[in-house]
Amino acid sequence: MASRAPGLTVSSSPSTSTSTSLSRLQTIANHMAPASITNFPAEAVPQAPEDPLFGLMRAYKADQSPDKVDLGIGAYRDDNAKPWVLPVVKKADEILRNDPEANHEYLPIAGLASLTSKAAELLLGTGAPAIAEKRVASVQTISGTGAVHLGALFLARFYKVNGASRTVYLSNPTWANHHQIFTNVGVPIEQYPYFDKKTKGLDFEGMKASLTNAPDRSIILLHACAHNPTGVDPTPEQWREIAELMKTKKHFPFFDTAYQGFASGNLDRDAGAIRYFVEQGFELVIAQSFAKNFGLYGERAGCFHFVAPPSPDAAEVATRVASQLAILQRSEISNPPIYGARIASIVLNDKDLFAEWQENLRTMSGRIITMRQALRSKLEELGTPGQWNHITDQIGMFSFTGLTEAQVQKIRADFHIYMTKNGRISMAGLNTRNVEYVAKAIDRVVRDLS
Questions:
Q1: 398-407: per-residue pLDDT in tens?
Q2: Per the residue annotation, which of 70, 203, 233, 256 is the catalytic one?
Q3: What is the pTM of this model?
Q4: Which is catalytic among the residues 91, 292, 378, 410?
Q5: For the chain, what are the domain ranges?
Q6: 166: closest CA among 220, 240, 94, 204?
Q7: Under CATH, domain 52-84+366-448 is a member of which superfamily?
Q8: Which intervals of the chain are annotated as region Disordered (predicted)?
Q9: 175 is catalytic
């Protein structure tokens, strides 16, 4: 006779017997199954907050109001509020698609040489002594974010005192991602004063005092132009003072440049601070993005540059640094993506296309400057309480309006206008059809919550 499982009985009814048996077997199986325990409980892996900017984008897209205005996203929009593919990028894309030699093979670890070499010239100038003397090491990166990360990783590994990483000083405020990037690689963070809430301009004295009090050889992160998020830049005279102070303190400059040519419409002017520091003999690094000035946001094209100071062994220093950057790059991404790099390279290496690109840059920067003038003028026409000259004094894609968090919440709730909670707006989100609406909304919330 066949044996029976403990606790099971045989019923005279086949259907009842089968049903009861299956039920009891399932009960037994449930009791015998091991408890499901995750290795990542909530106390070990808490729920992370949503990225504020991408959360703002999500809320904007979900808003059904026909009057909604997106002033949060840091991407250029034309006067019809549409993404603008630069005409010169379309031409470069056509050249690339018709190139019989084009393929999808891996790039070298350091990236596309025809891009990195021209990218260095774009920043430092054609015929720059640093380039001629082979004092520059350049690596293609995953846009500006990847460049900042690679630089942070390099400094965390090699720029130390008594075995500990040097502190990096970030402007207050700065691009929010700067904090995460340096923190994630173990580089300590401090802040230096930058934005003066009273004047809505540069707190130059506070900045100088902080850099003076920082320990010698600290890392100072500087926005080369079109400071994000404030739109406030030092004047050329102030840049010279900053350089002199940093030279005295032996500080290490880390330039982040995402808006060259996009800020003023002039590539040379927007690289002025970087070129001055290099001329003064600083050893420094530069994170460079082609997202904004080429409109290659999703292609993630950028570069990281190390510049050695003038010395007999400067070229050897640059070579050693390049070798270590390659090791870091290999372990992070192996090698960088090719499409956006090829587009930028085609433009940078063709005289006619380069000239057309400069015209495209003037179109973008010019439209933003026009929107600054329009917003300020409409606020002043309305007699909106306060001074609004900072709207045109600031430069680049972003403006710190001076609106409080409560006013930002109200303008979103009442007028469906989206901006970051600190009152930063993307000027590219304004156009001839919505600038008056935005000005009237700002006027209303300032009067209601002043």
A1: 999 989 999 9
A2: 256
A3: 0.88
A4: 292
A5: 52-84+366-448, 106-349
A6: 220
A7: Aspartate Aminotransferase, domain 1 (3.90.1150.10)
A8: 1-23
A9: yes
Structure token digits, residue 228: 């994000």
Residues 6+ apart with CB under 8 A from 415: 67, 69, 437, 441, 444, 445
Pick the CATH number of 106-349 from 2.40.50.1020, 3.40.640.10, 1.10.150.530, 3.40.50.300: 3.40.640.10
The three-state DSSP-derived secondary structure of 385-445 is CCCCCHHHHCCCCEEECCCCHHHHHHHHHHHCEECCCCCEEEHHHCCCCCHHHHHHHHHHH
User: Residues of the chain with pLDDT > 70: what percent?
Assistant: 92
Chain segment 148-176, per-residue pLDDT in tens: 999 999 999 999 877 777 899 999 999 98
d(CA 369, CA 435): 13
| SS3 (DSSP) at 211 | helix
Catalytic residue among 70, 84, 175, 239: 175
